[in-house]
Model the fold of this input.
Amino acid sequence: MIAVVLAILAVPLAAGLACLAVPGRAAAAVTVVSGTASFALVLALVPEAARGNLSYLSGYVTADAVSVVFLLATGFLYAAVAVYSAGYLRRHDARYARRFHAGFNAFAWAMLTAPLMGSLALLWIAVEVTTVISALLVAIEDTDGAAEAAWKYVLIASAGLGLALLATVFAYYAGAQVLGEHYSLAVQPLIQAGPRLPGTPVRLAFLLAVLGYGTKAGLFPVHTWLPDAHSEAPAPVSALLSGSLLAVSFYAILRFYQVAAASLGSGFPRDALLASGVASLLLASLCVFGQRDVKRLLAYSSIEHMGILAIGVSFGAPAALAGVLLHVMAHAAAKGSAFMGAGVFTVKYGTKRMAAVRGGLALLPWSGPLFLLAIFALSAVPPSGIFRSEFQIVSGGLRGGSYAAAAVLVVLVTLAFSGLAAPATGMLLTPPPGTGTAAARQQAPAGRAEAGSAAVAVRARARAHQPLARGEPSAWMVVPVLAGLAVLVLLGVHPPGELTDLITRGAAQLGAP
Amino acid sequence: MNTAPGVYEGAASVIAALMLLVEFGMLRQALVRDQVRLYAAQSALLSVLAVVIAAGRDLPGLYALAALSAALKVAAVPLVLRRLLGVPADRDAPGVAGSYTLSPASAVLAGIGLAAFGFFAFGAFHLSGPAAPALALAIAGAMVFVAFGLMIVRRDVASQAVGFFTLENAISLAALVVAAGLPLIFETAFLFDLLVAVVVFGMLIRAHHARAESLSTADLTRLRG
Done:
């Protein structure tokens, strides 16, 4: 298995470097091959990780059930978005495409690397690398909005990661009291030494980790960069940011949670996550109302789902923890599909403003219905995997006696559903615009904010005087959304046996203390 | 009964206190050029402290860390920042003076408040390692809060970036106090990671400057809600 693990660490990085040297179309092909291969490699890890922990290179590289769940989410999204990008980037020049693909592969590499790091120090470094690469990807459109979003993102996320580094330092201090001065900050020894670790630095480390990594995970009150970055990044990047990056940051919180629960008992870390989760869910459920930008709407939905994850962990029951791990994968598929769908609308209409998007079902015969299904899936409508995961989380909460928190979760998720579904159905079910006179045409130049290049802006202005034709911008942009929804149905109706074993083992690891 | 600190503890605490004073200088400073110089000075003090701890506590790995830290933070990072900002050594970038959200005096007063909060909050944890006195950790706590203050009270991208780099210095100070034995490989990785972050910060600052013809963030108000 070490060959598989090393290949996961090497393939996306090699692809990123190769993309700097090859023409734009070849870079797209390299990215598709790398994404697909990486996902296949991650799938190959599932049976082994479901049976036991894998540890290589003196414990610096590890894969257990929890980390493989997060790898699956990233691996799937990497493959799907790689295919999507091949269609999305057809409107851009070769130089842009090369830069995009190089950054995209490097970003995926960092996100696949983080869960494989067996040491809290290496985990921090990997998460920091995701920040610097993704900040450049957010800024790649070279618009006013993208520049503003990228600056806010890199500053706020880096400051948050500064706190996460401080958390790592205190975790080291706690571990050094038991394991000696020269240990590698490996997670498993820290968990095993948990009962003997001093309480104050562990408590401090956990709170700083929730605040620090929570900044990148989009947890309240340090979520402020997220709606800006998600809305201004290119749609493929938004999909990875939301479906994968937030989850990777949450993964780091889970590792600190394991150490804190082993040391302090589960009460304190659960209470901290419950407070953070409820606040995030409340904020997101209210903020989805009144949004005008479809990607901003989806960004607030991401905050909602990170809140659900935090609440799920706070319940502590095995069913809830299994629901959390399932939710990580289901959210990656659903949010990736939704952002990719939103990207199709942006390309088609030349704007992200929902008020200017009309008649989606009529004009986009595939992407229209698929986007609507993705929104419903995100809102936990059965048979989506998100319905199953949220059901498990709530049932775990009720079994564990957290009645009030479970009730709050159900109410706020329902509230968020109405905030998401109403504007999405408006985009799709209202009649399509007339020939060149409707609001959509008047708004077309705003598409520059998304589309970026001058050539696209010119095309957007030209389209302002033409009726939109029925049809998809590219089949490459439809197939990955279809795949994402298929995965959601699979997760919701009948998850494969080995995946269920993996989740069960991961939940047991998280709930072990 | 309290005992007076020895020469080693006293020297370590004085260097940490000097780092905090330099940070106040950044809070007050109006020119990017001088902020970068103060950052280099603060980083140099950090390297000196690492050498003192290496000598006083027989931790030879810290000599290498001090040398690497000096090479990167005292030399490379300021150089990269200047290059990316396009600031010659004898000139300054426009648009930074007057970027205070508070008056300079009020900013310093706010900084004193933040420093006091950080000092007493971190001091209350009573954490100390074998390498440096607990007082240095309390000072690192004060530096963390002042660094956040610097990022908040200045409305220009250069000062905000320097605030972040200073935050990293504060965390390095805390790491010297409670995690001096952290394997050198990690410390090295952290430093190179910082260098990458500096390059990305610099590129975004440069892009912002080219677009806005200013380093001010006052106009970054397009994205709301």
